[in-house]
């Protein structure tokens, strides 16, 4: 790391104790910056690195609500409005018991570079709560969402900050959040949230976009190696929004998805994952993978060990941060792994990433490979602003074009800055330069 960047990182470490995920994300980006700061000294003089280390605004709030037994519950709400140099803050809301300020800051920080890579004029932000929707009734989820929005509404708007979904926040939650926003402000401001229902401002292909986009990215990685998805054995972790639609696109491209997971374990299906059943269990019944395994003779549930113990040619980690460790990476490499594309945010630990790079595995970081979700959210904002509605085919074609563009931009930038084939360096530098130029041109704010 460049000496000056190292000094800034030491300050970031002192200022943000107890936030390991945030520090991990910052260190990963700062570690790519040497060739940039040597070539563009204005980045130092305009204080870009120092400013990127600190969110523009961090909002913390109480979310009180009453559960079905009449007991008062209190959760904590977060919105980190990280950087608006390129456009309104844009990034999802995560409802999961593991959520804390450090997690939201790490996700917001990553979002800046991801959004920049899409080329669509959106800034970086993220939010959420330590609320756990699992096991809660529909009424409880609705009351929680209404209370959450009763505080959040004053901070967001179509030109200010536009939240979307993430872990634990899907179409149902976006519906409850939008309903409360509309009721409070008294206007049908469609552009305030993305991931909306198709009858009230949502975009076709938004639900599929993150998973499809990650697979389009992986297809380009394979293409660069002279390979395709045809007949290839693929492991996908998670079984939520990103994982389900990544699996769908892998099947469409001729690949074989052998396993998916959730926090209770993973399921291996010798006939390939049955998407209709997976959707029924996860999207309709909101159930566990044990229920999938119990209804499929070719499937078994594994509750010990890791999904990454399975031999695979392509790995798509689509669950959560730091879920794929150094030892998991070693076992995948030993089994002939060729390509990793992160559908989740930062799912591979630094040790895993180092092992992939060392072994010559093609590795794509989440900020590039999973940018299809936010890119299609920006397409939803475009449709809302022009009161138009694109077809599925049109939207998917635009998504594919954006993902291929991000892939090529990462490779070209990595080459230009002396690390050919390194998607991490390419994504970090290409993402940063655009934000950095905007920050420098807009003065010290
Ligand atoms: P969902 O809530 O739809 O699904 C998350 C999946 O991951 C579930 O199967 C869940 O299992 C599993 N999971 C979550 N936390 C853990 C954990 N601590 N240990 C093991 N499994 C876990 O979320 P998404 O699919 O939307 O998000 C998945 C990842 O993709 C996240 O990293 C998110 O930030 C990222 N992402 C999402 C985008 C989107 O458009 N939705 C856009 C870009 C990135 P269980 O149900 O058992 O908890």
Kindly estimate the percentage of residues that lie in beta strands according to DSSP: 15-25%
Give the fraction of residues assigned to helices.
40-55%
Global outline: globular
Sheet with most strands: 7 strands, mixed
Radius of gyration: 21 Å
Q: Cα distance, first to last residue? A: 26 Å
Instruction: Provide the low-confidence segments as ranges.
Output: none
Ligands, ions, cofactors: NADPH dihydro-nicotinamide-adenine-dinucleotide phosphate
User: Which structural class do the helices and strands define?
Assistant: alpha/beta
**How is the quaternary structure best described?**
single chain
Going across the major beta sheet, what is the strand order? 9-8-7-6-10-11-12
Topology:
Blueprint: H1 3-15, H2 20-30, H3 34-39, H4 42-45, H5 48-52, E1 57-66, E2 72-83, E3 89-95, H6 101-118, E4 123-129, H7 138-152, E5 161-164, H8 171-185, H9 206-224, E6 233-237, H10 241-252, E7 256-262, E8 265-269, H11 275-284, H12 289-294, E9 299-302, E10 314-317, H13 326-334, E11 339-341, H14 350-359, E12 362-364, H15 366-369, H16 372-385, H17 392-416, H18 423-441
The site of NADPH dihydro-nicotinamide-adenine-dinucleotide phosphate (NDP) has 23 residues, from helix 10.
Structural commentary:
This protein is α/β, with parallel strands linked by helices and 445 residues long. It is built from 18 helices and twelve strands. The strands form two sheets. A seven-stranded mixed beta sheet has the order 9-8-7-6-10-11-12, with helices on both faces. Strand 11 (339-341), helix 14 (350-359) and strand 12 form a beta-alpha-beta unit. Helix 1 (3-15) runs antiparallel to helix 2 (20-30) and helix 2 (20-30) packs parallel to helix 6 (101-118). It starts with a helix and ends with a helix. The model has no long low-confidence stretch (mean pLDDT 97). Bound molecules: NADPH dihydro-nicotinamide-adenine-dinucleotide phosphate (NDP).
